[in-house]
Every structure is written in structure tokens, then in C-alpha cells.
């Protein structure tokens, strides 16, 4: 389990056990990090992840608060990876992505103009290994949108936009909790773009399959970890 993932679990456990209640203000960062045996950097990443999930509310200059959700809704929100796994909702969306997006990449390899390829290349150069997780997600969404646009098929662009909107929370969670998510995503995007620039539809399709499948595998693993954590909490 990644360090940040462990930090998220510990904060969630405090809320589940009633140490922190909806509306409560979290202790100062340094105090909470020492109390949970975590580094300040992992604590900050955990808070960012929980803020993205609307579990925590970071008020600049004031502090960080547990959102004023009803306890049942709060726990439901915290377990969204498990909930999605059990209902197959997000996994089904990723199955559709694995079917449609490789075809999109292959079509883009056949139809992308030099100007579109140059724009995608410029987009990639704006992101680097130290790019914050939230910016990585924005980059990822924009890059996939540019590939869809390069197909020249407006219906496909609209379809992929709908699919993308339904995977937003999973993308945020992965970017914030998976080790080396930024460099891995950038490398995969570069392989896809290189194939599109070369006009090689087969390689573009294969590179996109690898990219989407990697996210799917992470989602399965995250759901299993969440399930084990909840089972251990119930036993305790």
C-alpha cells in the first residue's frame, strides 16, 4: 500500500471511529502527522485526496474541516472505490473505454493533421514529473480529448467526453495515491502520440490498450485493498 494511501486510510479511520465528526476541524498538520506516524508530505497528499472526494473542506487561512455530510453519506463517499467495484459501475465504464479509445487512437493515427500532432506534442511538453496530481488529471482528460478530436468524428468526441466525465473521481484517486502515477502516465501518453505521429494505427491502438488496462488493474487492486481495510475495521 502506498504511503499516501495509508495516510488516507488512517484519517478515514479517525472519522469512522468518531474521533473526527462532520464539521470538526482537523488538528494542525504537524500534530496530526506525528500522531498518525506519517510524514507531512504524505499527510498533505492525503488531505488533497480527501478534499477531492469532498470528505474534507480545506479553508485557506482557517484550517481543514470534515464536511458537514450525514454520517451515512460520509462513509459512503469514503468507500466510493469499493462501492463502485461492487456495483461494477466504474469498471464497466473502463471496459467501454478499453473498447472505444484504442479505436479512437487508431483512427487519429490515420487522420490527424500535422497541426493537431504538433498541438498534442506541445501539450505533453507542458507536463513533467513534478506536475501536481490535480494538474495531471486535467492534462490526461485534455490529451484524450485532443486524440478524439483528431479523428474528425464529432459523435465519437461526444461519446468519449461522456465516458470521461464518469471516470473523473477514479482518475483523481489514482493520481493522488498511486506511486509514480505522473511519470507513468506521461510515458504512456508519449508512446500513444509517437504512434499517431508516425501514422501507425496498430501501434497507436496497442499503446492505448496498455494505457487504459493499467488504470483498470489499479482500480481492481484499490477496491481489494479497500475491502480488506473495511473487513479489518469490522473485526476490530
Automatic annotation (TrEMBL):
Pfam families: FCD, GntR. GO terms for molecular function: DNA binding; DNA-binding transcription factor activity. Residues 1-69 form the HTH gntR-type domain. Keywords: DNA-binding, Transcription, Transcription regulation. Signal peptide: none annotated. It comes from the Bacteria. This is FadR family transcriptional regulator. It comes from Agrococcus sediminis.
